[in-house]
Design a protein that fits this description.
By secondary structure, the chain is α+β, with helices and mostly antiparallel strands. Among the domains are: 162 residues, Nuclear Transport Factor 2, Chain: A (Roll), CATH 3.10.450; 146 residues, Nuclear Transport Factor 2, Chain: A, CATH 3.10.450. 27% of the residues lie in helices and 30% in strands. It contains 9 helices and 12 strands. The strands form 2 sheets. A 6-stranded mixed sheet has the order 2-1-6-5-4-3. It has a 6-stranded mixed sheet with strand order 8-7-12-11-10-9, with helices on both faces. The longest helix has 39 residues. The chain is globular, with a radius of gyration of 25 Å. It starts with a helix and ends in a 52-residue tail after the last helix.
Length: 474
Protein backbone atom coordinates (compact mmCIF):
# COMPACT_ATOMS: atom_id res chain seq x y z
CA UNK A 1 0.00 0.00 0.00
CA UNK A 2 2.75 2.44 0.95
CA UNK A 3 4.43 1.91 -2.43
CA UNK A 4 1.14 2.82 -4.13
CA UNK A 5 0.85 5.96 -2.03
CA UNK A 6 4.40 6.94 -2.91
CA UNK A 7 3.65 6.49 -6.59
CA UNK A 8 0.41 8.47 -6.32
CA UNK A 9 2.09 11.26 -4.42
CA UNK A 10 4.88 11.38 -6.96
CA UNK A 11 2.35 11.62 -9.76
CA UNK A 12 0.59 14.46 -7.99
CA UNK A 13 3.91 16.28 -7.66
CA UNK A 14 4.92 15.52 -11.26
CA UNK A 15 8.01 13.75 -9.89
CA UNK A 16 9.38 10.21 -10.12
CA UNK A 17 8.43 7.81 -7.30
CA UNK A 18 11.97 7.29 -5.89
CA UNK A 19 12.54 11.03 -5.65
CA UNK A 20 9.62 11.76 -3.37
CA UNK A 21 11.09 9.87 -0.43
CA UNK A 22 14.36 11.72 -0.77
CA UNK A 23 13.45 15.27 -1.69
CA UNK A 24 11.43 17.26 0.79
CA UNK A 25 10.46 19.65 -1.99
CA UNK A 26 8.78 16.91 -3.97
CA UNK A 27 7.01 15.62 -0.86
CA UNK A 28 5.74 19.08 0.01
CA UNK A 29 4.50 19.63 -3.54
CA UNK A 30 2.69 16.28 -3.46
CA UNK A 31 1.10 17.11 -0.12
CA UNK A 32 0.01 20.52 -1.36
CA UNK A 33 -1.47 19.02 -4.50
CA UNK A 34 -3.31 16.50 -2.34
CA UNK A 35 -4.81 19.31 -0.31
CA UNK A 36 -6.04 20.97 -3.47
CA UNK A 37 -7.85 17.75 -4.29
CA UNK A 38 -9.29 17.64 -0.77
CA UNK A 39 -10.54 21.21 -1.17
CA UNK A 40 -12.22 20.32 -4.45
CA UNK A 41 -13.82 17.28 -2.83
CA UNK A 42 -15.10 19.54 -0.06
CA UNK A 43 -16.57 21.96 -2.57
CA UNK A 44 -18.37 19.15 -4.37
CA UNK A 45 -19.68 17.75 -1.08
CA UNK A 46 -20.93 21.22 -0.14
CA UNK A 47 -22.82 21.64 -3.41
CA UNK A 48 -24.41 18.21 -3.06
CA UNK A 49 -25.42 18.94 0.55
CA UNK A 50 -27.10 22.21 -0.49
CA UNK A 51 -28.96 20.44 -3.30
CA UNK A 52 -30.22 17.86 -0.80
CA UNK A 53 -31.13 20.59 1.68
CA UNK A 54 -33.38 22.44 -0.79
CA UNK A 55 -34.88 19.28 -2.22
CA UNK A 56 -35.69 18.11 1.31
CA UNK A 57 -37.30 21.52 1.89
CA UNK A 58 -39.61 20.84 -1.06
CA UNK A 59 -40.63 17.42 0.25
CA UNK A 60 -41.35 18.80 3.72
CA UNK A 61 -43.49 21.61 2.27
CA UNK A 62 -45.36 18.98 0.22
CA UNK A 63 -46.62 17.40 3.43
CA UNK A 64 -46.94 20.63 5.46
CA UNK A 65 -44.27 19.37 7.85
CA UNK A 66 -43.69 22.85 9.25
CA UNK A 67 -41.49 21.74 12.16
CA UNK A 68 -39.08 20.13 9.72
CA UNK A 69 -39.21 23.08 7.32
CA UNK A 70 -38.33 25.53 10.10
CA UNK A 71 -35.50 23.25 11.25
CA UNK A 72 -33.71 23.85 7.93
CA UNK A 73 -33.14 27.56 8.69
CA UNK A 74 -30.28 29.14 10.58
CA UNK A 75 -31.41 30.66 13.88
CA UNK A 76 -31.52 34.19 12.40
CA UNK A 77 -32.63 33.07 8.95
CA UNK A 78 -35.22 34.86 6.82
CA UNK A 79 -38.17 33.66 4.75
CA UNK A 80 -39.79 35.64 1.94
CA UNK A 81 -42.28 34.47 -0.67
CA UNK A 82 -44.05 36.55 -3.29
CA UNK A 83 -44.93 40.00 -1.95
CA UNK A 84 -45.77 38.83 1.56
CA UNK A 85 -42.77 40.44 3.20
CA UNK A 86 -39.83 39.12 5.22
CA UNK A 87 -40.16 36.79 8.22
CA UNK A 88 -37.10 36.63 10.43
CA UNK A 89 -36.01 33.94 12.87
CA UNK A 90 -36.78 30.24 12.99
CA UNK A 91 -39.68 30.59 15.44
CA UNK A 92 -41.42 33.34 13.45
CA UNK A 93 -40.88 31.42 10.21
CA UNK A 94 -42.48 28.35 11.80
CA UNK A 95 -45.51 30.39 12.91
CA UNK A 96 -45.82 32.12 9.53
CA UNK A 97 -45.84 28.82 7.63
CA UNK A 98 -48.88 27.70 9.56
CA UNK A 99 -50.62 31.08 9.40
CA UNK A 100 -50.08 31.43 5.64
CA UNK A 101 -50.53 27.87 4.42
CA UNK A 102 -52.62 26.13 7.07
CA UNK A 103 -52.01 23.84 10.04
CA UNK A 104 -49.17 21.35 10.17
CA UNK A 105 -49.69 18.04 8.34
CA UNK A 106 -51.34 17.51 4.97
CA UNK A 107 -54.91 16.26 5.19
CA UNK A 108 -57.08 14.21 2.86
CA UNK A 109 -58.11 16.27 -0.17
CA UNK A 110 -55.19 18.71 0.08
CA UNK A 111 -52.56 19.03 -2.67
CA UNK A 112 -49.44 21.03 -1.77
CA UNK A 113 -46.67 19.66 -4.01
CA UNK A 114 -43.67 22.03 -4.13
CA UNK A 115 -41.17 20.91 -6.75
CA UNK A 116 -37.62 22.27 -6.33
CA UNK A 117 -35.68 21.93 -9.59
CA UNK A 118 -32.82 23.19 -11.75
CA UNK A 119 -30.20 24.15 -9.11
CA UNK A 120 -27.36 26.59 -9.83
CA UNK A 121 -25.17 26.67 -6.71
CA UNK A 122 -22.03 28.64 -5.90
CA UNK A 123 -20.06 28.10 -2.70
CA UNK A 124 -17.93 30.99 -1.47
CA UNK A 125 -14.15 30.62 -1.45
CA UNK A 126 -14.03 30.25 2.34
CA UNK A 127 -16.58 27.39 2.20
CA UNK A 128 -18.88 28.87 4.88
CA UNK A 129 -21.51 30.61 2.75
CA UNK A 130 -23.21 29.89 -0.56
CA UNK A 131 -25.89 31.12 -2.95
CA UNK A 132 -28.33 29.02 -4.93
CA UNK A 133 -30.91 29.62 -7.65
CA UNK A 134 -33.70 27.04 -8.04
CA UNK A 135 -36.95 26.73 -9.96
CA UNK A 136 -40.23 26.21 -8.13
CA UNK A 137 -43.22 24.44 -9.66
CA UNK A 138 -46.29 24.30 -7.43
CA UNK A 139 -49.21 21.86 -7.83
CA UNK A 140 -51.73 23.07 -5.26
CA UNK A 141 -55.39 22.65 -4.47
CA UNK A 142 -58.33 21.30 -2.50
CA UNK A 143 -60.32 18.39 -3.93
CA UNK A 144 -63.53 19.53 -5.62
CA UNK A 145 -62.78 23.14 -4.66
CA UNK A 146 -59.78 24.86 -6.26
CA UNK A 147 -56.45 24.15 -7.90
CA UNK A 148 -53.43 26.14 -9.03
CA UNK A 149 -50.24 25.87 -11.00
CA UNK A 150 -47.38 27.99 -9.69
CA UNK A 151 -44.04 28.90 -11.25
CA UNK A 152 -41.33 30.75 -9.35
CA UNK A 153 -37.62 31.28 -8.82
CA UNK A 154 -35.71 30.89 -5.57
CA UNK A 155 -32.63 33.03 -4.98
CA UNK A 156 -31.39 31.76 -1.62
CA UNK A 157 -28.42 32.24 0.68
CA UNK A 158 -26.93 29.46 2.81
CA UNK A 159 -24.55 29.28 5.74
CA UNK A 160 -22.45 26.41 7.07
CA UNK A 161 -22.53 26.18 10.86
CA UNK A 162 -20.72 23.42 12.78
CA UNK A 163 -20.26 21.55 9.52
CA UNK A 164 -23.98 21.64 8.60
CA UNK A 165 -25.48 23.69 5.77
CA UNK A 166 -28.58 25.71 6.65
CA UNK A 167 -30.82 28.22 4.87
CA UNK A 168 -29.87 31.75 5.90
CA UNK A 169 -32.22 33.57 3.51
CA UNK A 170 -34.97 32.01 1.40
CA UNK A 171 -36.58 34.22 -1.23
CA UNK A 172 -39.17 32.79 -3.61
CA UNK A 173 -40.10 35.17 -6.45
CA UNK A 174 -43.56 34.47 -7.89
CA UNK A 175 -43.40 34.31 -11.69
CA UNK A 176 -46.83 32.82 -12.37
CA UNK A 177 -49.88 31.65 -10.44
CA UNK A 178 -52.92 30.42 -12.35
CA UNK A 179 -56.07 28.36 -12.01
CA UNK A 180 -55.46 24.87 -13.41
CA UNK A 181 -58.73 24.77 -15.33
CA UNK A 182 -58.31 28.14 -17.07
CA UNK A 183 -54.53 28.12 -17.46
CA UNK A 184 -52.10 30.96 -17.97
CA UNK A 185 -53.47 31.73 -21.41
CA UNK A 186 -56.71 33.01 -19.87
CA UNK A 187 -56.11 33.89 -16.22
CA UNK A 188 -53.32 34.70 -13.74
CA UNK A 189 -53.25 35.70 -10.09
CA UNK A 190 -51.05 38.50 -8.74
CA UNK A 191 -48.24 37.74 -6.30
CA UNK A 192 -49.79 37.54 -2.84
CA UNK A 193 -49.14 40.50 -0.56
CA UNK A 194 -48.59 40.84 3.22
CA UNK A 195 -51.00 39.01 5.49
CA UNK A 196 -52.88 40.83 8.25
CA UNK A 197 -53.19 37.56 10.16
CA UNK A 198 -49.45 36.93 9.97
CA UNK A 199 -47.68 40.30 9.68
CA UNK A 200 -44.07 40.09 8.49
CA UNK A 201 -41.04 41.59 10.21
CA UNK A 202 -40.25 43.76 7.18
CA UNK A 203 -41.92 44.70 3.88
CA UNK A 204 -40.97 42.92 0.63
CA UNK A 205 -37.35 43.55 -0.32
CA UNK A 206 -38.42 44.21 -3.92
CA UNK A 207 -41.72 45.23 -5.47
CA UNK A 208 -42.68 43.51 -8.72
CA UNK A 209 -45.70 42.08 -10.53
CA UNK A 210 -46.19 38.45 -11.52
CA UNK A 211 -47.27 37.24 -14.99
CA UNK A 212 -48.70 38.67 -17.24
CA UNK A 213 -46.21 41.35 -16.19
CA UNK A 214 -42.61 40.25 -16.57
CA UNK A 215 -39.89 40.24 -13.97
CA UNK A 216 -36.60 38.38 -13.85
CA UNK A 217 -35.25 37.87 -10.32
CA UNK A 218 -31.65 39.12 -9.97
CA UNK A 219 -29.01 36.51 -10.70
CA UNK A 220 -26.56 35.93 -7.85
CA UNK A 221 -23.89 34.83 -10.34
CA UNK A 222 -22.31 36.20 -13.51
CA UNK A 223 -22.64 34.51 -16.89
CA UNK A 224 -20.57 31.32 -16.44
CA UNK A 225 -18.82 31.76 -19.79
CA UNK A 226 -18.46 35.50 -20.34
CA UNK A 227 -18.09 36.38 -16.65
CA UNK A 228 -20.37 39.39 -17.18
CA UNK A 229 -23.26 40.34 -14.92
CA UNK A 230 -26.66 39.37 -16.29
CA UNK A 231 -29.18 41.99 -17.37
CA UNK A 232 -32.25 41.50 -19.51
CA UNK A 233 -33.35 45.05 -20.44
CA UNK A 234 -31.65 48.31 -19.69
CA UNK A 235 -33.45 50.10 -16.89
CA UNK A 236 -35.73 47.22 -15.91
CA UNK A 237 -35.96 46.22 -12.22
CA UNK A 238 -33.05 44.07 -11.23
CA UNK A 239 -30.99 44.87 -14.32
CA UNK A 240 -28.30 46.72 -12.38
CA UNK A 241 -27.85 44.15 -9.60
CA UNK A 242 -24.22 43.09 -9.35
CA UNK A 243 -23.29 39.43 -8.89
CA UNK A 244 -23.03 38.56 -5.22
CA UNK A 245 -20.68 35.68 -5.72
CA UNK A 246 -17.91 34.78 -8.13
CA UNK A 247 -16.63 31.23 -7.73
CA UNK A 248 -13.02 31.14 -6.58
CA UNK A 249 -10.52 28.33 -6.97
CA UNK A 250 -10.13 26.36 -3.71
CA UNK A 251 -6.92 27.02 -1.83
CA UNK A 252 -4.92 24.59 0.32
CA UNK A 253 -4.75 25.19 4.07
CA UNK A 254 -1.68 25.17 6.26
CA UNK A 255 -2.15 21.66 7.62
CA UNK A 256 -0.40 19.71 4.88
CA UNK A 257 0.78 16.18 5.78
CA UNK A 258 4.35 16.09 7.12
CA UNK A 259 4.93 12.32 7.15
CA UNK A 260 4.36 9.49 4.76
CA UNK A 261 1.77 7.96 7.11
CA UNK A 262 -0.21 11.22 7.15
CA UNK A 263 0.01 11.48 3.39
CA UNK A 264 -1.17 7.89 3.01
CA UNK A 265 -4.19 8.45 5.28
CA UNK A 266 -5.09 11.75 3.65
CA UNK A 267 -4.92 10.29 0.15
CA UNK A 268 -7.15 7.36 1.11
CA UNK A 269 -9.68 9.72 2.67
CA UNK A 270 -9.67 12.06 -0.33
CA UNK A 271 -10.17 9.17 -2.72
CA UNK A 272 -13.15 7.89 -0.73
CA UNK A 273 -14.72 11.35 -0.49
CA UNK A 274 -14.41 11.84 -4.23
CA UNK A 275 -15.82 8.36 -4.78
CA UNK A 276 -18.93 9.25 -2.76
CA UNK A 277 -19.53 12.41 -4.78
CA UNK A 278 -18.95 10.51 -8.01
CA UNK A 279 -21.38 7.83 -6.80
CA UNK A 280 -24.16 10.38 -6.25
CA UNK A 281 -23.71 11.66 -9.82
CA UNK A 282 -23.75 8.13 -11.23
CA UNK A 283 -26.88 7.24 -9.25
CA UNK A 284 -28.63 10.35 -10.54
CA UNK A 285 -27.80 9.22 -14.09
CA UNK A 286 -29.15 5.76 -13.26
CA UNK A 287 -32.40 7.26 -11.95
CA UNK A 288 -32.78 9.42 -15.05
CA UNK A 289 -32.10 6.47 -17.34
CA UNK A 290 -34.86 4.54 -15.54
CA UNK A 291 -37.32 7.29 -16.44
CA UNK A 292 -36.27 7.45 -20.09
CA UNK A 293 -36.55 3.67 -20.52
CA UNK A 294 -39.97 3.56 -18.84
CA UNK A 295 -41.14 6.42 -21.10
CA UNK A 296 -40.73 4.30 -24.22
CA UNK A 297 -41.54 0.84 -22.92
CA UNK A 298 -37.92 -0.29 -23.13
CA UNK A 299 -38.56 -2.90 -20.48
CA UNK A 300 -35.56 -5.13 -21.09
CA UNK A 301 -33.22 -2.15 -20.83
CA UNK A 302 -35.04 -1.10 -17.66
CA UNK A 303 -34.68 -4.54 -16.08
CA UNK A 304 -30.96 -4.49 -16.85
CA UNK A 305 -30.60 -1.56 -14.41
CA UNK A 306 -31.33 -3.89 -11.47
CA UNK A 307 -29.01 -5.97 -9.35
CA UNK A 308 -29.44 -9.71 -9.74
CA UNK A 309 -31.42 -9.83 -6.48
CA UNK A 310 -33.06 -6.42 -6.98
CA UNK A 311 -36.77 -5.85 -6.58
CA UNK A 312 -39.52 -3.66 -8.00
CA UNK A 313 -42.81 -2.55 -6.44
CA UNK A 314 -45.25 -0.31 -8.31
CA UNK A 315 -48.60 0.89 -6.92
CA UNK A 316 -50.33 -2.05 -5.17
CA UNK A 317 -49.08 -4.71 -7.56
CA UNK A 318 -46.83 -6.37 -4.99
CA UNK A 319 -43.09 -7.07 -4.93
CA UNK A 320 -41.25 -8.77 -7.78
CA UNK A 321 -37.98 -10.11 -6.43
CA UNK A 322 -34.92 -10.70 -8.61
CA UNK A 323 -33.88 -9.13 -11.89
CA UNK A 324 -35.54 -11.76 -14.08
CA UNK A 325 -38.80 -11.54 -12.14
CA UNK A 326 -38.65 -7.76 -12.59
CA UNK A 327 -38.13 -8.33 -16.32
CA UNK A 328 -41.08 -10.72 -16.48
CA UNK A 329 -43.29 -8.21 -14.67
CA UNK A 330 -42.27 -5.35 -16.96
CA UNK A 331 -42.53 -7.23 -20.25
CA UNK A 332 -45.56 -9.41 -19.53
CA UNK A 333 -47.24 -7.34 -16.82
CA UNK A 334 -46.91 -3.68 -17.75
CA UNK A 335 -46.18 -4.47 -21.39
CA UNK A 336 -48.82 -7.25 -21.59
CA UNK A 337 -46.50 -9.37 -23.68
CA UNK A 338 -46.46 -6.93 -26.60
CA UNK A 339 -43.15 -6.12 -28.32
CA UNK A 340 -41.13 -3.77 -26.17
CA UNK A 341 -40.51 -0.23 -27.29
CA UNK A 342 -42.65 2.85 -28.04
CA UNK A 343 -46.16 2.35 -29.40
CA UNK A 344 -47.93 4.70 -31.76
CA UNK A 345 -50.71 6.63 -30.07
CA UNK A 346 -49.58 5.71 -26.53
CA UNK A 347 -47.89 8.14 -24.15
CA UNK A 348 -46.44 7.23 -20.74
CA UNK A 349 -43.73 9.80 -20.01
CA UNK A 350 -42.23 9.22 -16.58
CA UNK A 351 -40.32 12.35 -15.49
CA UNK A 352 -37.84 11.75 -12.64
CA UNK A 353 -37.17 14.86 -10.52
CA UNK A 354 -35.73 16.23 -7.28
CA UNK A 355 -33.55 13.34 -6.04
CA UNK A 356 -32.25 13.40 -2.47
CA UNK A 357 -29.34 10.97 -2.62
CA UNK A 358 -27.34 9.63 0.34
CA UNK A 359 -24.30 7.44 -0.30
CA UNK A 360 -22.93 5.18 2.44
CA UNK A 361 -19.54 5.91 4.04
CA UNK A 362 -17.92 3.07 2.09
CA UNK A 363 -19.54 4.20 -1.19
CA UNK A 364 -21.01 0.74 -1.82
CA UNK A 365 -24.72 1.35 -1.09
CA UNK A 366 -27.07 4.33 -1.30
CA UNK A 367 -30.65 5.51 -0.89
CA UNK A 368 -32.63 8.07 -2.86
CA UNK A 369 -36.00 9.77 -2.61
CA UNK A 370 -37.22 11.28 -5.86
CA UNK A 371 -40.39 12.63 -7.39
CA UNK A 372 -42.09 11.26 -10.49
CA UNK A 373 -44.53 13.13 -12.72
CA UNK A 374 -46.43 10.95 -15.18
CA UNK A 375 -47.86 12.32 -18.44
CA UNK A 376 -50.02 9.59 -19.94
CA UNK A 377 -52.62 9.06 -22.60
CA UNK A 378 -53.99 7.37 -25.70
CA UNK A 379 -54.32 9.54 -28.82
CA UNK A 380 -57.92 10.45 -29.50
CA UNK A 381 -59.17 8.67 -26.35
CA UNK A 382 -57.79 9.93 -23.05
CA UNK A 383 -55.14 11.99 -21.31
CA UNK A 384 -54.09 12.02 -17.67
CA UNK A 385 -51.65 13.37 -15.11
CA UNK A 386 -50.05 11.28 -12.41
CA UNK A 387 -47.50 11.69 -9.64
CA UNK A 388 -45.65 9.69 -7.05
CA UNK A 389 -42.57 9.48 -4.87
CA UNK A 390 -39.89 6.82 -5.19
CA UNK A 391 -37.96 5.64 -2.14
CA UNK A 392 -35.22 3.45 -3.61
CA UNK A 393 -32.04 1.64 -2.62
CA UNK A 394 -28.91 1.10 -4.71
CA UNK A 395 -25.88 -1.16 -4.61
CA UNK A 396 -22.54 -1.08 -6.37
CA UNK A 397 -21.66 -4.38 -8.03
CA UNK A 398 -18.66 -5.03 -10.26
CA UNK A 399 -17.94 -1.31 -10.35
CA UNK A 400 -21.44 -0.31 -11.50
CA UNK A 401 -24.37 1.17 -9.60
CA UNK A 402 -27.62 -0.78 -9.83
CA UNK A 403 -31.11 -0.66 -8.36
CA UNK A 404 -31.44 -2.78 -5.23
CA UNK A 405 -35.08 -1.79 -4.74
CA UNK A 406 -37.40 0.45 -6.76
CA UNK A 407 -40.58 1.34 -4.89
CA UNK A 408 -42.98 4.05 -6.03
CA UNK A 409 -45.67 5.48 -3.74
CA UNK A 410 -48.33 6.79 -6.13
CA UNK A 411 -50.07 9.95 -4.96
CA UNK A 412 -52.59 10.85 -7.67
CA UNK A 413 -53.80 9.91 -11.13
CA UNK A 414 -56.29 12.25 -12.73
CA UNK A 415 -57.79 13.12 -16.08
CA UNK A 416 -56.12 16.03 -17.85
CA UNK A 417 -59.27 18.18 -17.73
CA UNK A 418 -59.78 19.29 -14.14
CA UNK A 419 -56.64 17.41 -13.07
CA UNK A 420 -56.40 16.75 -9.33
CA UNK A 421 -59.24 19.12 -8.41
CA UNK A 422 -62.07 17.40 -10.25
CA UNK A 423 -60.86 13.82 -10.60
CA UNK A 424 -59.99 10.77 -8.56
CA UNK A 425 -58.64 7.65 -10.19
CA UNK A 426 -60.26 5.31 -7.69
CA UNK A 427 -58.42 2.12 -6.84
CA UNK A 428 -54.73 1.69 -7.53
CA UNK A 429 -53.62 -1.11 -9.87
CA UNK A 430 -53.51 -4.30 -7.81
CA UNK A 431 -51.95 -7.74 -8.06
CA UNK A 432 -52.05 -9.52 -11.41
CA UNK A 433 -53.56 -13.01 -10.97
CA UNK A 434 -51.89 -14.14 -14.19
CA UNK A 435 -48.48 -12.93 -13.03
CA UNK A 436 -48.60 -13.03 -9.22
CA UNK A 437 -45.90 -11.17 -7.30
CA UNK A 438 -43.40 -12.84 -5.01
CA UNK A 439 -44.89 -11.05 -2.02
CA UNK A 440 -47.84 -8.70 -1.39
CA UNK A 441 -47.45 -4.91 -1.22
CA UNK A 442 -45.21 -3.83 1.64
CA UNK A 443 -47.62 -1.00 2.44
CA UNK A 444 -51.27 -0.44 1.63
CA UNK A 445 -52.26 3.03 0.42
CA UNK A 446 -54.83 4.76 -1.77
CA UNK A 447 -54.85 7.40 -4.49
CA UNK A 448 -55.72 11.05 -4.02
CA UNK A 449 -57.81 12.51 -2.43
CA UNK A 450 -56.54 10.22 0.33
CA UNK A 451 -53.30 11.45 1.91
CA UNK A 452 -50.95 8.93 3.52
CA UNK A 453 -47.45 8.88 4.96
CA UNK A 454 -44.66 8.33 2.46
CA UNK A 455 -41.48 7.00 4.11
CA UNK A 456 -38.32 9.11 4.27
CA UNK A 457 -34.96 7.40 3.77
CA UNK A 458 -33.14 10.12 5.73
CA UNK A 459 -33.37 12.25 8.86
CA UNK A 460 -33.81 16.03 8.73
CA UNK A 461 -30.49 17.27 7.27
CA UNK A 462 -30.13 20.08 9.85
CA UNK A 463 -31.84 19.03 13.08
CA UNK A 464 -31.41 15.28 12.65
CA UNK A 465 -35.12 14.89 13.40
CA UNK A 466 -36.15 11.35 12.55
CA UNK A 467 -39.01 10.79 10.09
CA UNK A 468 -42.38 10.55 11.78
CA UNK A 469 -45.94 9.54 11.07
CA UNK A 470 -48.33 12.43 11.57
CA UNK A 471 -51.28 10.07 11.34
CA UNK A 472 -50.51 8.38 14.65
CA UNK A 473 -48.30 11.06 16.22
CA UNK A 474 -45.12 8.95 16.16
Amino acid sequence: MRALILAAAATLAFAAAPAIAQESGAFAAAAQRLQMLEARAQRMEDERAIENLMRAYGYYVDRKMWDDVADLFAEGGTFETGQRGVYRGRDHIRAALEDLWGPQDLQDGQMNDHLVLQPVIHVAADGTTAMGRFRHIGMLGEYQDWGRWEDGIYENAFVKEDGVWKISALHLYTILSTDIEQGWGEQAFPAEGPSEAAPPDAPPTLEYDAYPAYYTPPFHYPNPVSGQKVTYREGDPGAAVDPQMRPAAPQPDAGAPTTLDELEAALADAELRLERVKAANEIQNLINAYGYYLDKGLYNELADLFAEDGSMELAQRGVYQGRERVRDFLVNGLGRGAPTGPREGFLQDHVQLQPVIHVSEDAQTATARMRAIMIMGFAGRSASWGAGVYVDEFVKEDGRWKFKTAHVYNTFNAAYDGAWVRNSAGALPGQNPDLPPDSPPTMEFEYWPTVYDIPFAYDNPVSGRAPYSYRDGE
